[in-house]
Amino acid sequence: MLTGSFCNFEFLTNLIEVTVKIQKFVPFNIFLWKISSRCNLNCKYCYVYNSVDSLWREQPRFMSEPVVRQTARRMREHCEAHNVPNVSLNFHGGEPLLGGVKYLKEIVAIIDETFAGSGIQLDLGLQSNGLLFTPEIGDFFLERDLSIGISLDGPPEVNDINRVDHRGQPTSAKLEEKLALLTSAPYELIFGGFLSVINTTVDPIAVIEYLLSFNTANIDFLLPLNNHDRRPPAKEIDADATPYADWLIQIFDYWFYRHTNTRIRIFDSIIRLLCGHSSLVEAIGLDPVALIVIETNGSLEAVDTLKTTFEGATKLEYNVGEHDFDTVAKDMAVRSRQLGADALCQKCKECPVVDICGGGYLPHRYSSERGFDNPSVYCADIAKLIRHIHAAVAGELNKQVLETVTV
Question: Between 398 and 84, where is the model more confident?
Fold first, then answer.
């Protein structure tokens, strides 16, 4: 169900016309469980608690056992009906460690019980601010092969700009203690990597070197969740300025030419797309999105980050107690993320890098005037980054070819 500013008439009409081209929806294979709807931090840029949407206040603090059981049952039904062999199940919040290790064990036990004998491979992960990590949690994650990702923006002087507690106090000192534990034996086996929100006012090389110092296998740099109504920092005046591309390009060159083993998902995704493969992230490329969000009360959302656009933007009026995942997958708000270039504005359709960019992340396209019928507010940045990576990859390939040629 489309509500609010999503219903730009021209945009909606185009969606209705192109949706008939889809003979069958794309089944979900990524399930994001919001098992806690509260957080022990008060990050200044948080899209849940410090944004335009306040529906979190109506959510129970934790996902109850009946909701856990029903969600797991609906998941299995959906995956079996559509022969989905591999499923990614990610625990999010709020802060998903707030419930403690006993709560996590109970949830995972229900999931394992529900999927027993199905043959479906479950990849379990959890995204955390890391401050509540303990050896007991680490031991359980090792036992169940459950990975943990940590949100970290860079060294303390960077991270503490936005990632503060409810008293406005910095959190990096405590987090560094937890990271020392998480990145040492045996817990380094469950460490999934970092999510890092870009801040163009700080030195990108200092950020990447700090993150790499923890021997992480994965880093995901995130563009701030701004849009055309609320321009990103450093782009308030000039929409065509490229501060985010310039920042990321410095990190790309550092990463690419040093041949580091760490995967940086935005760079990997662009390179994969340039080589004809699929993207690793929703924010880049035209691949159909197969992700669904389950809130603590069992309500279902298509893209939780849309909370940064307008009040109620994520609300679909579906709940696992009354609706199966097939019903949700047929909703226009979900299917519009599976239409590829057909769902994009005319400017994007005519752009030479649209197959790589994919129009950018959906929340970044929003304006109150035209809904989501816009290019990304980071359009100029993304295009510049893609062209830079294309030139670097092409140059490296040419170099390798020349090295194999004998005259």
Answer: 84
